[in-house]
Structure formats: C-alpha cells, structure tokens
Amino acid sequence: MNHQYISIEGNIGAGKTTLAERLAREFNTMLLTERFEDNSFLPKFYKDPESYAFALELSFLADRYQQIREHVANRNLFHSCVVSDYFFDKSGIFAGVNLKDPERRLYRQLFDIIRQNLPEPDLIVYLHASPEILLNRIRERGRGYEKHIPAGYLISLQEMYVEYFRQKDRQRVLWIDIEKKDPLHPDHYGNLINLLEKGLPPGIHYF
C-alpha cells in the first residue's frame, strides 16, 4: 500500500469503522478505532447537549491525541502502516457544531496547540451520504443514545465537513458518495484497493 496512514472519515452512521476494519485486514495493518463506547459523556450529551458538549469534546480531544500520538506518531517497524476510522481534525469539526462561544474559542486554542504535534494522514477517505441514509443506518445499528439524533444535526455536521475539505485542496482526499458507490460492494471494493495500492496525488479525488 502506497499510503502509510489512512483515515476513514464521514458523518455519524456513514460506515467508517466497517470500512476501516476491512482495509486493515486487507493490508494487514494496524487498526485504530474511536473509543466512543468508553466515553461516559456521550449518552449524557445526547440527553442534554448544552450541559455536556464542552466536556464531551474535551474528552474526545484528549483520547484522539493519546491514540494518534501513541500508535501513529511513534509507530514501530511491526506497525508501519495504520488505518483509522477517524482523523484528529474531526475534533475541530464537531466542536464547531456542538460548542458556543466562549467555550468554542477556548477549545479552538487548545486544539491548535495540540494539533501541531501530530502527523496528518497520508490519505483521507471521506464517506458522504444524505441525512436520510445516515438516519436509517443509525436506527439499524441500534445504539440507544443515538435514536433521537435530528436530521438537522447531521446536516450541520455535513456542512462543516464540506467546508473543511474545501479549504484543504492540497491534502489527499478520496471522496466516496456511498449512495452511488458502496466501497464494500464487490463491484467497487476492488477498484478502491487498486487506488490505494497505486497511491493518489494531493487533491480531492472522487470515487
């Protein structure tokens, strides 16, 4: 594989972990997944966003930093390649939606300081889907604290992702509209593997 650090990104319910797991097996690489199940603030946030948003975002910031610092920045010869189901800048995207000033400004200061010490992915695979598709997937996976996520929240996150990538045109991004091409479908998965094996130049590429 030409890329040493691949991050799978996308909105809630886009299928990030499933694809990351499949690619890690395919290339026999280290898999790095978000530890959301261990985050006690997440269920509380969905019940009372205003009270728990800042604590939630700080906890994810710390955990993502620790994981990436330990497993990516300091990876050894036995794990020279890494596939993750998130990237660190996700913290800034979600905080931009979930936080209000002045907490948002304070969070951004902390985020910018911490981010300087972390490597960026060689490639970001972004899974794009409509809110309707995402809500169906969220319902299907059956996490109780997610069942009341409104479509408007997913739309706000999606807008933040689109704006983020608009400003990152020099980064390697593979944009996959999962409503048109399911990357795990046999007809498309092979094409995806070929792209990853050959490597992609900087810029946004549409699958």
Describe this structure as you would to a colleague:
The protein has 207 residues and is α/β, with parallel strands linked by helices. The chain folds into two domains: 26-120; 122-207, no CATH class. Helices cover 51% and strands 14% of the residues. The chain is built from eight helices and six strands; from the N terminus they run βαβααβααβααβαβ. It has a six-stranded parallel sheet with strand order 2-3-1-4-5-6, with helices on both faces. Helix 8 (186-198) links the parallel strand 5 and strand 6. The longest helix is centred in the first third of the chain and has 25 residues, at 49-73. The mean pLDDT is 93.
What is the strand and helix layout of this fold?
Layout: E1 5-10, H1 16-27, E2 30-32, H2 41-47, H3 49-73, E3 82-84, H4 90-98, H5 103-115, E4 123-128, H6 131-141, H7 151-166, E5 172-177, H8 186-198, E6 203-206
Parallel strand pairs: 1-3, 1-4, 2-3, 4-5, 5-6
